[in-house]
Amino acid sequence: MILVTGASGNVGSEAARLLGAQHQPTRALVRDAARAPRADVEIITGDFERPDTLDAAMRGIETVILVSPAIPAQEIAVIASAVREGVRHIIKITSKASDDSPVERRRGQARIEAYLETSGLSYTLLRANAYMQNLLALAPVIKQSGRFVMSAGDGQVGMIDTRDVAATAATVAAEATVHAGRTYWLTGPDLITYNDVAKELSDALGYEIEYRRTTPAEHRAAMVQAGLPETVATSNAQAFGLIAEGDAAWLSDEVAAITGAAPRSLRTFIADHIAAFT
């Protein structure tokens, strides 16, 4: 049986849906049953900060698709529970990770991965580039003003749709032993700038959307003013600053190699989510 954590989020819910559609025995872990995915799977409620609920979710599980906000204490608790309950394999959804990164999330990912590597469990890492779904956070300001402000400069991003991350995870979970010990780098089909995002939105909406470049400091201040916690705003501004420097300008063909289907383009993503911007 396969357990999907974080099953109310973009990646987890889609992975659970796909596994259910494939008639793979699957359990979906959510904090709130009301937010459980619409999928032909078993639903169980639990909390990353309550080991007893994690252990209950892990019983009878062979493979875990680990999706979470990359908070080290929480993901380490999931891995520890998997060890206690005899899980064989973990598929971790991750991103770039480095102990000395200026971005807190990347340092956190490095801690989690180090723990996983020494846990004794078999594992696969799915290291994804930036998610297209993050663009949906810009929808309110785009609808209101016809523009958005970022500190990514003209940096290119191998942006990926979370549905393709989920499809890759579901495929790997169905044949985990084949992918044991592997790290896959997941991207969409194209290198995209935020100016490209503005152009694609303009074409889809029928009026001009403007991308305004700003500095990381100004971007951070704007995010704090919009209500983001200072630590989150700082981490986001650092990440966008790295994008401006070319840190996310990488592509791979591993989604297609694993799933047999080409990853979705930015144009397809926008067409599928156009209602959010109108």
What does this entry look like structurally?
With 278 residues, the protein is an alpha/beta fold. The protein folds into two domains: 2-128, Rossmann fold, CATH 3.40.50.720; 129-159 and 188-249 and 264-278, UDP-galactose 4-epimerase, domain 1 (Alpha-Beta Complex). It is 42% helix and 15% strand. The protein has helices at residues 10-21, 51-58, 72-84, 104-117, 139-145, 162-174, 194-205, 216-225, 230-244, 254-259, 266-272, and strands spanning 2-4, 26-30, 42-45, 63-66, 89-94, 122-128, 147-150, 183-186, 210-213. The strands form two sheets. Strands 3-2-1-4-5-6-8 form a seven-stranded parallel beta sheet, sandwiched between helices. The chain has a two-stranded parallel sheet with strand order 7-9. It is globular. The mean pLDDT is 95.
How is the topology of this model organized?
Layout: E1 2-4, H1 10-21, E2 26-30, E3 42-45, H2 51-58, E4 63-66, H3 72-84, E5 89-94, H4 104-117, E6 122-128, H5 139-145, E7 147-150, H6 162-174, E8 183-186, H7 194-205, E9 210-213, H8 216-225, H9 230-244, H10 254-259, H11 266-272
Parallel strand pairs: 1-2, 1-4, 2-3, 4-5, 5-6, 6-8, 7-9
Helix pairs in contact: 1-6, 2-3, 3-4, 7-11, 8-9
